[in-house]
Amino acid sequence: MEGGVRILVDSHGVMCRMFGQLTLRKESALTGLIEAPFSMLRLSDADRKRPQKDGWGVAWVDAAGKTRVLKSPRPIYEEGPAARLAAQRCASTALLGHIRAASNPKGLAAPRVMGLANTQPFGDGRWAFAHNGTLQIPDAVAARLGARRRRLKGVNDSEVYFQQFLKFLAQVRDPAEALAACARETVEVWRAARRDYPSKSSPFTGLNAVVVGRDALLALSLYPSPDGPRSIGRGSQPWGTMSLRVAPDRVVVASEDLDAGRWRRLAPGTLVSARRTGGRLLVELRRLGKEVYQ
Predict the structure, then answer these.
(1) DSSP category for residue 71
(2) Which domains are delineated in the chain?
(3) Phi/psi of residue 124, nearest 5 degrees
Protein backbone atom coordinates (compact mmCIF):
# COMPACT_ATOMS: atom_id res chain seq x y z
CA MET A 1 0.00 0.00 0.00
CA GLU A 2 1.28 3.45 -0.88
CA GLY A 3 -0.12 6.60 0.75
CA GLY A 4 -3.16 4.65 1.97
CA VAL A 5 -4.01 3.48 -1.55
CA ARG A 6 -4.14 -0.21 -2.33
CA ILE A 7 -2.18 -1.18 -5.44
CA LEU A 8 -4.29 -2.57 -8.28
CA VAL A 9 -4.72 -6.31 -8.27
CA ASP A 10 -4.07 -7.43 -11.82
CA SER A 11 -4.16 -10.68 -13.77
CA HIS A 12 -0.79 -11.76 -12.39
CA GLY A 13 -1.55 -10.77 -8.78
CA VAL A 14 -4.22 -12.17 -6.48
CA MET A 15 -7.56 -13.28 -7.87
CA CYS A 16 -10.87 -14.22 -6.30
CA ARG A 17 -12.11 -17.81 -6.28
CA MET A 18 -15.64 -19.02 -6.91
CA PHE A 19 -17.81 -21.98 -7.85
CA GLY A 20 -21.40 -22.62 -8.83
CA GLN A 21 -23.56 -25.70 -9.12
CA LEU A 22 -26.90 -26.78 -10.52
CA THR A 23 -28.25 -30.15 -9.36
CA LEU A 24 -31.37 -32.25 -9.72
CA ARG A 25 -31.74 -32.61 -5.95
CA LYS A 26 -30.99 -30.17 -3.17
CA GLU A 27 -27.37 -30.14 -2.04
CA SER A 28 -25.40 -27.93 0.28
CA ALA A 29 -22.35 -25.84 -0.59
CA LEU A 30 -20.10 -27.91 1.69
CA THR A 31 -18.15 -29.60 -1.07
CA GLY A 32 -17.15 -26.52 -3.04
CA LEU A 33 -16.78 -24.13 -0.13
CA ILE A 34 -15.31 -26.37 2.60
CA GLU A 35 -14.63 -30.04 1.92
CA ALA A 36 -13.31 -30.60 -1.62
CA PRO A 37 -9.54 -31.19 -1.89
CA PHE A 38 -9.24 -27.78 -3.57
CA SER A 39 -12.21 -26.07 -1.93
CA MET A 40 -12.49 -22.34 -1.44
CA LEU A 41 -11.51 -22.65 2.23
CA ARG A 42 -8.53 -24.91 1.61
CA LEU A 43 -7.07 -22.73 -1.13
CA SER A 44 -7.84 -19.37 0.50
CA ASP A 45 -4.50 -19.20 2.28
CA ALA A 46 -2.62 -22.06 0.63
CA ASP A 47 -0.33 -19.48 -0.95
CA ARG A 48 0.52 -17.03 1.81
CA LYS A 49 1.71 -14.49 -0.76
CA ARG A 50 -1.63 -14.58 -2.60
CA PRO A 51 -4.42 -15.16 -0.06
CA GLN A 52 -8.10 -14.44 -0.56
CA LYS A 53 -8.49 -12.39 2.60
CA ASP A 54 -11.12 -9.78 1.79
CA GLY A 55 -14.38 -11.63 2.39
CA TRP A 56 -16.43 -14.67 1.47
CA GLY A 57 -20.03 -15.57 0.78
CA VAL A 58 -22.59 -18.02 -0.52
CA ALA A 59 -25.82 -17.55 -2.42
CA TRP A 60 -28.62 -19.96 -3.21
CA VAL A 61 -32.14 -20.18 -4.60
CA ASP A 62 -34.72 -20.95 -1.90
CA ALA A 63 -37.92 -22.99 -2.14
CA ALA A 64 -39.84 -19.91 -3.31
CA GLY A 65 -37.41 -19.32 -6.16
CA LYS A 66 -35.75 -16.30 -4.54
CA THR A 67 -32.01 -15.84 -4.19
CA ARG A 68 -30.60 -15.60 -0.68
CA VAL A 69 -27.11 -14.38 0.24
CA LEU A 70 -24.92 -14.93 3.28
CA LYS A 71 -21.53 -13.21 3.35
CA SER A 72 -18.80 -11.79 5.55
CA PRO A 73 -16.07 -9.22 4.87
CA ARG A 74 -13.54 -11.21 6.89
CA PRO A 75 -11.13 -13.88 5.56
CA ILE A 76 -12.77 -17.29 5.26
CA TYR A 77 -9.68 -18.93 6.77
CA GLU A 78 -10.43 -17.02 9.99
CA GLU A 79 -14.11 -17.99 9.97
CA GLY A 80 -14.08 -21.70 9.13
CA PRO A 81 -16.90 -22.69 11.53
CA ALA A 82 -19.15 -19.85 10.35
CA ALA A 83 -18.43 -20.71 6.73
CA ARG A 84 -19.31 -24.35 7.36
CA LEU A 85 -22.65 -23.36 8.92
CA ALA A 86 -23.39 -21.06 5.98
CA ALA A 87 -22.53 -23.82 3.50
CA GLN A 88 -24.89 -26.21 5.28
CA ARG A 89 -27.67 -23.64 5.43
CA CYS A 90 -27.71 -22.89 1.71
CA ALA A 91 -28.99 -26.29 0.57
CA SER A 92 -30.49 -25.80 -2.88
CA THR A 93 -30.51 -27.04 -6.45
CA ALA A 94 -28.78 -23.82 -7.53
CA LEU A 95 -26.04 -22.14 -5.50
CA LEU A 96 -22.65 -20.47 -5.67
CA GLY A 97 -19.77 -19.52 -3.42
CA HIS A 98 -17.09 -16.83 -3.59
CA ILE A 99 -13.96 -15.78 -1.71
CA ARG A 100 -12.54 -12.34 -2.36
CA ALA A 101 -9.18 -10.80 -3.06
CA ALA A 102 -10.17 -7.16 -3.43
CA SER A 103 -9.50 -5.36 -6.68
CA ASN A 104 -9.19 -1.59 -6.73
CA PRO A 105 -9.10 -0.24 -10.29
CA LYS A 106 -9.94 3.29 -9.12
CA GLY A 107 -7.03 3.45 -6.68
CA LEU A 108 -9.21 4.29 -3.69
CA ALA A 109 -8.03 4.31 -0.10
CA ALA A 110 -7.90 0.67 0.99
CA PRO A 111 -10.68 0.82 3.64
CA ARG A 112 -13.16 2.10 1.06
CA VAL A 113 -13.01 -1.06 -1.07
CA MET A 114 -13.53 -3.32 1.95
CA GLY A 115 -16.67 -4.04 3.94
CA LEU A 116 -19.88 -5.99 3.45
CA ALA A 117 -21.26 -3.78 0.66
CA ASN A 118 -18.25 -4.65 -1.49
CA THR A 119 -18.20 -8.35 -0.61
CA GLN A 120 -19.53 -10.95 -3.03
CA PRO A 121 -21.84 -12.58 -4.00
CA PHE A 122 -24.35 -9.93 -5.03
CA GLY A 123 -28.06 -10.66 -5.38
CA ASP A 124 -31.32 -8.97 -6.28
CA GLY A 125 -33.86 -11.60 -5.17
CA ARG A 126 -34.02 -13.33 -8.56
CA TRP A 127 -30.34 -13.73 -9.46
CA ALA A 128 -27.07 -14.10 -7.57
CA PHE A 129 -23.75 -13.15 -9.12
CA ALA A 130 -20.03 -13.63 -8.48
CA HIS A 131 -17.05 -12.26 -10.43
CA ASN A 132 -13.37 -13.15 -10.67
CA GLY A 133 -11.11 -10.56 -12.27
CA THR A 134 -11.01 -6.78 -12.47
CA LEU A 135 -13.20 -4.46 -14.49
CA GLN A 136 -10.61 -1.76 -15.12
CA ILE A 137 -13.06 0.96 -16.20
CA PRO A 138 -15.99 0.66 -13.76
CA ASP A 139 -16.97 4.34 -13.88
CA ALA A 140 -17.19 4.34 -17.67
CA VAL A 141 -19.34 1.19 -17.62
CA ALA A 142 -21.46 2.55 -14.75
CA ALA A 143 -22.13 5.69 -16.76
CA ARG A 144 -24.24 3.51 -19.09
CA LEU A 145 -26.36 2.00 -16.33
CA GLY A 146 -28.90 4.82 -16.39
CA ALA A 147 -31.20 4.87 -13.36
CA ARG A 148 -29.81 1.49 -12.32
CA ARG A 149 -26.60 3.24 -11.25
CA ARG A 150 -28.40 4.44 -8.14
CA ARG A 151 -28.69 0.81 -7.02
CA LEU A 152 -24.95 0.49 -6.48
CA LYS A 153 -24.31 0.10 -2.76
CA GLY A 154 -20.51 -0.07 -2.76
CA VAL A 155 -17.53 1.04 -4.82
CA ASN A 156 -16.73 -2.42 -6.14
CA ASP A 157 -16.10 -2.94 -9.87
CA SER A 158 -17.78 -6.35 -9.62
CA GLU A 159 -21.03 -4.78 -8.45
CA VAL A 160 -20.98 -2.56 -11.54
CA TYR A 161 -20.64 -5.74 -13.61
CA PHE A 162 -23.64 -7.26 -11.78
CA GLN A 163 -25.83 -4.24 -12.45
CA GLN A 164 -24.67 -4.25 -16.07
CA PHE A 165 -25.83 -7.87 -16.29
CA LEU A 166 -29.23 -6.99 -14.80
CA LYS A 167 -29.56 -4.08 -17.24
CA PHE A 168 -29.10 -6.33 -20.24
CA LEU A 169 -31.22 -9.10 -18.73
CA ALA A 170 -34.14 -6.68 -18.52
CA GLN A 171 -33.63 -5.91 -22.20
CA VAL A 172 -33.03 -9.35 -23.72
CA ARG A 173 -34.69 -11.68 -21.16
CA ASP A 174 -31.94 -14.25 -21.74
CA PRO A 175 -29.29 -14.52 -18.98
CA ALA A 176 -26.67 -16.07 -21.27
CA GLU A 177 -27.09 -13.33 -23.85
CA ALA A 178 -27.04 -10.73 -21.05
CA LEU A 179 -23.60 -11.96 -19.95
CA ALA A 180 -22.37 -11.87 -23.53
CA ALA A 181 -23.72 -8.34 -23.93
CA CYS A 182 -21.76 -7.23 -20.85
CA ALA A 183 -18.49 -8.32 -22.45
CA ARG A 184 -19.32 -6.69 -25.76
CA GLU A 185 -20.39 -3.41 -24.17
CA THR A 186 -17.28 -3.26 -21.98
CA VAL A 187 -15.06 -3.57 -25.04
CA GLU A 188 -17.17 -0.96 -26.83
CA VAL A 189 -16.88 1.45 -23.88
CA TRP A 190 -13.13 0.90 -23.79
CA ARG A 191 -12.73 1.78 -27.44
CA ALA A 192 -14.67 4.99 -26.93
CA ALA A 193 -13.01 6.05 -23.67
CA ARG A 194 -9.51 4.61 -23.94
CA ARG A 195 -7.84 8.03 -24.00
CA ASP A 196 -9.34 8.72 -20.57
CA TYR A 197 -7.36 5.80 -19.11
CA PRO A 198 -3.72 6.28 -20.13
CA SER A 199 -2.48 4.01 -17.35
CA LYS A 200 -4.66 1.08 -18.45
CA SER A 201 -3.78 -1.38 -21.19
CA SER A 202 -7.13 -3.18 -21.34
CA PRO A 203 -10.74 -2.76 -20.15
CA PHE A 204 -10.51 -5.76 -17.84
CA THR A 205 -8.07 -8.32 -16.51
CA GLY A 206 -10.91 -10.82 -16.31
CA LEU A 207 -14.69 -11.01 -16.58
CA ASN A 208 -15.09 -14.54 -15.25
CA ALA A 209 -18.59 -14.76 -13.80
CA VAL A 210 -20.94 -17.28 -12.20
CA VAL A 211 -24.67 -16.55 -12.01
CA VAL A 212 -27.48 -18.61 -10.49
CA GLY A 213 -31.24 -18.20 -10.64
CA ARG A 214 -34.25 -20.45 -10.38
CA ASP A 215 -33.34 -23.66 -12.28
CA ALA A 216 -30.41 -21.91 -13.97
CA LEU A 217 -26.63 -21.67 -13.82
CA LEU A 218 -24.57 -19.41 -16.08
CA ALA A 219 -20.82 -19.03 -16.30
CA LEU A 220 -18.52 -16.92 -18.43
CA SER A 221 -14.84 -17.82 -18.67
CA LEU A 222 -13.13 -14.68 -19.87
CA TYR A 223 -9.57 -14.23 -18.67
CA PRO A 224 -7.76 -13.22 -21.88
CA SER A 225 -4.20 -13.76 -20.67
CA PRO A 226 -3.36 -17.36 -19.68
CA ASP A 227 0.26 -16.45 -18.92
CA GLY A 228 1.56 -16.12 -15.41
CA PRO A 229 1.13 -18.23 -12.26
CA ARG A 230 -0.49 -21.65 -12.42
CA SER A 231 -3.33 -22.93 -10.26
CA ILE A 232 -2.55 -23.68 -6.64
CA GLY A 233 -4.61 -26.85 -6.42
CA ARG A 234 -3.37 -29.07 -9.24
CA GLY A 235 -0.55 -26.79 -10.30
CA SER A 236 -1.16 -27.23 -14.03
CA GLN A 237 -4.16 -25.03 -14.73
CA PRO A 238 -3.48 -21.72 -16.54
CA TRP A 239 -4.18 -18.54 -14.59
CA GLY A 240 -7.83 -17.49 -14.81
CA THR A 241 -8.99 -20.55 -16.76
CA MET A 242 -12.31 -21.79 -15.41
CA SER A 243 -13.33 -25.43 -15.01
CA LEU A 244 -16.53 -27.32 -15.86
CA ARG A 245 -17.82 -30.73 -14.81
CA VAL A 246 -21.05 -32.15 -16.22
CA ALA A 247 -22.78 -35.26 -14.87
CA PRO A 248 -26.38 -36.49 -15.31
CA ASP A 249 -27.37 -35.10 -11.90
CA ARG A 250 -25.12 -32.04 -11.59
CA VAL A 251 -23.27 -29.25 -13.36
CA VAL A 252 -20.38 -27.58 -11.53
CA VAL A 253 -18.28 -24.63 -12.63
CA ALA A 254 -15.32 -23.27 -10.69
CA SER A 255 -12.43 -20.86 -10.93
CA GLU A 256 -10.20 -23.93 -10.94
CA ASP A 257 -10.61 -27.70 -10.50
CA LEU A 258 -12.07 -28.56 -7.10
CA ASP A 259 -10.46 -32.02 -7.04
CA ALA A 260 -8.14 -34.29 -9.01
CA GLY A 261 -10.95 -35.78 -11.11
CA ARG A 262 -11.86 -35.07 -14.72
CA TRP A 263 -12.68 -31.44 -15.51
CA ARG A 264 -13.09 -29.53 -18.73
CA ARG A 265 -10.98 -26.40 -18.95
CA LEU A 266 -12.89 -23.50 -20.49
CA ALA A 267 -11.11 -21.44 -23.13
CA PRO A 268 -11.32 -17.63 -22.94
CA GLY A 269 -14.69 -16.42 -24.19
CA THR A 270 -16.58 -19.63 -23.33
CA LEU A 271 -20.14 -19.13 -22.11
CA VAL A 272 -21.87 -21.95 -20.22
CA SER A 273 -25.64 -22.05 -19.87
CA ALA A 274 -27.23 -24.82 -17.78
CA ARG A 275 -30.88 -25.20 -16.88
CA ARG A 276 -33.01 -27.71 -15.04
CA THR A 277 -36.13 -28.77 -16.91
CA GLY A 278 -38.34 -31.85 -16.95
CA GLY A 279 -36.15 -33.66 -14.44
CA ARG A 280 -33.04 -33.21 -16.57
CA LEU A 281 -30.10 -30.85 -16.78
CA LEU A 282 -29.48 -29.27 -20.15
CA VAL A 283 -26.10 -27.67 -20.81
CA GLU A 284 -25.06 -25.46 -23.72
CA LEU A 285 -21.62 -24.04 -24.47
CA ARG A 286 -20.75 -21.36 -26.96
CA ARG A 287 -17.76 -19.17 -27.69
CA LEU A 288 -17.97 -15.40 -27.85
CA GLY A 289 -16.37 -13.48 -30.68
CA LYS A 290 -12.62 -12.90 -30.51
CA GLU A 291 -13.15 -9.16 -30.15
CA VAL A 292 -13.91 -9.67 -26.44
CA TYR A 293 -10.86 -11.75 -25.52
CA GLN A 294 -8.00 -10.72 -27.80
Answers:
(1) E
(2) 17-292 (3.60.20.10)
(3) -130, 10
